[in-house]
Amino acid sequence: MRRSISVASLVLIGLFAKNATAQDTRLLGTWLIISAKEAGEATKEPVGDKVTFSDTKMTVQPKDPTEDAPPPLAIKIDATKTPRQIDITFKKDDEASVVKAIFGIQDGVLKLCMAAPGEARPTTLESKKDTRQFLLVLKRAKEE
Hints:
9 strands; alpha+beta; Lipocalin; 144 residues
């Protein structure tokens, strides 16, 4: 009897670990920006751009094919936190800056809320007036 409980426990732990890993990888892939807010105000500038996430990088493909894509950005994802956290590192004038952000995925929609470089990580998936937070809403991009 004791052996069957141990085997059952291992199977359940394995299923839980598999589901946790699957949830952690939901961010990976290409997404299309469908709306954006900066300091609580809607902005159309990035709408239509595509964002691709890998384990360690984030790339942006502008909607305008004549516009140069920025270099890939280094990312560090912490899916053990609630809300999930992501640090986005970019270089400007040979100095690295980190943008602290949070994200959530629900019903196939990704919300990514970023603070201005050097500011505290947002705590909610929204961009409020009088903040320096930027909210992107994205949906999974269709394969071409």
